[in-house]
Amino acid sequence: MKISEQWLREWINPKLTTEAMCEQLTLSGLEVESITPVAKKFSGVVVAEVVSLQKHPNADRLNVCQVNVGAREPLTIVCGASNVRAGMKVAAALEGAVLPGDFKIKHTKIRNVESFGMLCSATELGIAEESDGLHELPLDAPIGKNVWEYLILEDNVIDISITPNRGDSLSILGLTKEISAVCNAPLTHSTNTTSSRGLSAGSSELHTVPATIKDTLKIHLDATKECPHYAGRIIRNVKADALTPIWMQERLRRSGIRCISPIVDVMNYVMLALGQPMHAFDLQNIHGDIHVRFSKNAERIKLLDGQTLELKANTLLIADNKNPLAVAGVMGGFDSAVTLT
User: Fold this and answer.
1) C-beta separation of 46 from 75 below 8 A
2) R_g of the chain, CA atoms, integer Å
């Protein structure tokens, strides 16, 4: 299990170094396999906005961009990324910046056009092994802000080997309880919301929002021994194509989970935080009630990864009145998956 040390220490912060805290975890039976910085060191990179762009006069695949980096005048930066566009917020390496691999940014000419910096991908920043185009930042990212500070990259990924009998530790909450016990440290819960300083702002209060949706789906527990409890909630008027907040994207990334869409990302985030697995279904593709039952022999389901399974008679399912919706606790079905619509 991979987890952000910065996230973990918002819940519990023993007066120990990273190495000493991880040693205590290992001695308790939760073996820490590695401690890895979340990013390779870089400097001189700021939040910037692409003000305008035009095709490079001497190269079809390049654009000449005017970029607001918080200085008195926009900078001219030549960029070859396919996703560059006016209005986007990006990470701009200024003249004198040093990127991972000791790559120094200099004022240069590219096909006879002067360029005063570089617009960066996640790979060039050292925060991803692969990336497709520029690393896009949220529209509310403050222009001129140091990107290392904005993304709170002074952090480590702690990789812990969780044994099969310690499922209680597969979450931030579970780990903090263990650390509290072995390090004799107080446990403090916090929620995390965006703030002007970047990714998160600690708060000791949990805010409850009253339910406003009255309609429900009836749930039938047909396999009560295997699944004694199953809960659901209908949520409407969700903007499914919104951008997942950058602080949540970063916490998922540091936990080894790919961001997909806000709804799916929230499900994964709660699972990592509290250890409660959740799955979102598209309500318009559910027929009738919800049933937690065993599969019928040779019953088929197409999963989210595209493969179609022919099930044996002892597979626990989440289903509606007509079809299986998910292999319980394993993977959701393709036909009821949440989409951007």
Assistant:
1) no
2) 24
